[in-house]
Amino acid sequence: MAEAHQAVAFQFTVTPDGIDLRLSHEALKQIYLSGLHSWKKKFIRFKNGIITGVYPASPSSWLIVVVGVMSTMYAKIDPSLGIIAKINRTLDTTTPLSIHLSAGTENVVSGVLFGTGLWVALIITMRYSLKVLLSYHGWMFAQHGKISRATRIWMGLVKIFSGRKPMLYSFQTSLPRLPVPAVKDTVDRYLESVKPLMKESDFKRMTVLAQDFAVSLGPKLQWYLKLKSWWATNYVSMHTRPLSWRTRDLLYVMPTQIQAARAGNSIHAILLYRRRLDREEIKPVLPLCSAQWERMFNTSRIPGEETDTIQHMRDSKHIVVFHKGRYFKVWLYYDGRLLKPREIEQQMQRILDDPSEPQPGEAKLAALTAGERVPWAKCRQAYFGHGKNKQSLDAVEKAAFFVTLDETEQGYRKEDPEASMDSYAKSLLHGRCFDRWFDKSLTFIVFKNGKIGEHSWADAPIVAHLWEYVLATDCFQLGYAEDGHCKGDPNPNIPYPTRLQWDIPEECQQVIETSLNSATILASDVDFHSFPFHTFGKGLIKKCRTSPDAFVQLALQLAHYKDMGKFCLTYEASMTRLFREGRTETVRSCSTESCNFVLAMVDPTQTFEQRLRLFKVASEKHQHLYRLAMTGSGIDRHLFCLYVVSKYLAVDSPFLKEVLSEPWRLSTSQTPQQQVELFDLERNPEYVCSGGGFGPVADDGYGVSYILVGENLISFHISSKFSSPETDSHRFGKHLTQAMTDIIRLFGFSANSKK
């Protein structure tokens, strides 16, 4: 009732004496403040658009250039080599007779026009020069720890042309386009990658297919791909789909056990991050593509019978909260400002205390987003296109993000670390299949005991950047009162959250149940094992003068061979954000060199020296493959795009068909750590995060995510399927732990060496 009262600015009643008009001053005030907030946001976006639009110059540089031109003209020097005089003559012939400009005024106008043109020309030149500089990637292939003179000069030029204070999207127009590799180079690298995985006869057959493709159909498909690369900003981006990523809370620290309070601080921190994102105040550490940040919030995936679409709102002033089968709309602003943490806690507590029951079909509605896409698309069109269902669905899909107040308790427990971590991981991965809105770009989960997590689309570095900011802001900036509540006072004037209303017919409820059943079967089949590896961390690995990522990847190869007794096609995600709209590329971690090392490790006749030598060769090879992938010379994105073009042209390629059907039985990814320096991890070693994970890609394979936390901890997340008789996530975890310790011993360190 309070919300309805404040939502109406005026009411009128027709009486025999006339019209009785009553104004709500509070509602008028809220409308005024809301409008003021919207215009302020528009102004900030307009200002940032100008700053980004003229980058790498600055708006103030226009004045410097124009004043410089006018000064030289005042000194009787023509800096334009006659162009200003031509502008003067043009003004004389084009100015209407009714407007007479004096000679002095004409000179000023001509000087300003020339200065503006010169300024624009300088911007274009600087931008093109920066793009050329950023196209150089030789620095990545230099020997570790050594910087050549050419690289030093390049770094200095990049710093000069990058300007003083780049904003989040400043580098976008200066980033080079992702190059299209030569077909022959990609085919050769592909054959090299599969050679250790195939029998000799199979490899010969694949070589014939590959070489035939490289000289016949490949060049034709490549021509179309080159054509696309000229008019599209990235020849890959249109063909890739969003990923799903799940990130968890601090591993050992529990800031508060009050669910509503943890939600209050964390949601406020997420909104502070979104505000920084809107204002482009998230400064890029390196010239990397920032396009993924644009759809982190206010975004939903809309189901379609043929293909899904992405709906993105420029702004959203509310979130939708799910609790015990009910959906609530919560406004994020009051008095023209963001709700404070204590006010958000108050709203969450109101939801937790709400005794109302779910409406028919409401409790498990979100299962539609977890099941097959076509039934959801048909349901959406048939039952959610009008009336209260459309209004409520719009509220969900246009929300800034989705929040689940989970009824379970999760997190690391010392008395049962394995079971507690596994349960925590599975809850974030899929929940109960109806308490997460999987079509939202970000779902934030708050558990009953105050633990938190998220489920999102974006690639790991983007999500990790947000999550580090949220955790650091929650614990080190906002904090909690002694009683565990958010700091500050409640505000009883804030309207209550609004229950979303639904009218879901029986036919739709049957589809919901069908979607839930199919999603539950998939979720129940996930075997997830998560554990912290304390024996040593990247600090000790760096003392071995090797890449920590290469070390872990070779340990994964050794663990997989011990687990399965064979090698497999391995996927490691690397980034291509050095290019505009770049996302990821595949590093095929299983190479001839890595196989030689693994075979030496399981061969008792091999000495430590032989194994160590093979390890160093395999490590160097892995780093080279990683650099190739990052610099646009990967294998899989190119082959996939060639396959897509072949489908468009309705031509069949036996080579591409076979390549795309090969399963990734070991899919891996590293989560970056410490991207935002809001606190010192060395001084606060207990504030470590266990990172995030994902499900297996192949039915008979493993999905492995890992995060190198600080100097002494590596957190692993291993997933597989119970239905596969060949896989076991816990068994693989034991092999991985043993592989890590076996490799570190090659360098003369004991398994428990941390310093």
Automatic annotation (TrEMBL):
It is a multi-pass membrane protein. The chain crosses the membrane at residues 50-71, 108-130. InterPro entries: Carn_acyl_trans, CAT-like_dom_sf, Cho/carn_acyl_trans, Cho/carn_acyl_trans_2, CPT_N. Its main location: mitochondrion. It comes from the Eukaryota. Belongs to the carnitine/choline acetyltransferase family. This is carnitine O-palmitoyltransferase. The gene is CPT1A.
